[in-house]
Amino acid sequence: MILVLLVLFAFLFFLASTMIQRRLLRQLMSFVTFMALLAVVVSITGNMYAHWYTVKEVQTEQKKLFPISSNEKLKYIISENVGTKSKEVVVVSKDKADALQLSIQKPSLEHEIHMIRTVHTEAIVKSTTLTYVYKNPLAKILFSISGNDKCLEKTISTVHIPKTWEVFTEKQADYLEAKQKEMSSEAGVAKEKAKAESYVKNEVKKELQKIEKKAVQGDNDALSLLMDKVKLQAKQKEFIQKFTVQYQEIARLALLEDVKKR
Q1: Given the DSSP bridges, would you call strands 111-118 and 151-162 parallel, antiparallel or unpaired?
Q2: Are 153 and 63 in contact (CB under 8 A)?
């Protein structure tokens, strides 16, 4: 509609300045139509660059993110800082637990992305979108052709990552993937199995030696345990389970330490 007024006032100015014979009337009408034309041009410019006839509308959205790894003991995402001083980040995760493709969130001039650690168990991204909408129906009728309605100003996303999850760089994630592939090979499995068995065997031996020492010192419970083969075997199984879990955690922490050095 505003473009129609622009053309109309331009045409009226042309007519007023060329077709009216009486000088005073011609000058008056030329001035009036020129000012109207100028007002239309200024309004279009102000609406396009300063959003004179629009107001900001805030929309919020929240969605769940999923870790790249399906391993419950090693949930992680990939994150890289943008530039050297910027606090914005690129975040790589999954939109669904069973998704085959990774979701990449990149900041841009119109999209800020920040990341914080949280005590919650789920990862979420909260997005606030600022858009411009026309103040009233008249403004929309006049200026809707310019495309300023629902014009995006900025989206600010905050990614909330649980503290129990790991955040790796792309280089670290690649190293982890290669390391896990190596460990899952036949040779890697055999190596890890041997290390686990050796650890568990040594720890169980230490515990049994402690019981024997207590028995020598006159501890009746320890002495009774050594004399009862069934109870002793049950105790050994308990120790094996305990130190197997313990070794798995030690191995997990050692792997994480190794990855974070990269």
Answers
A1: parallel
A2: no
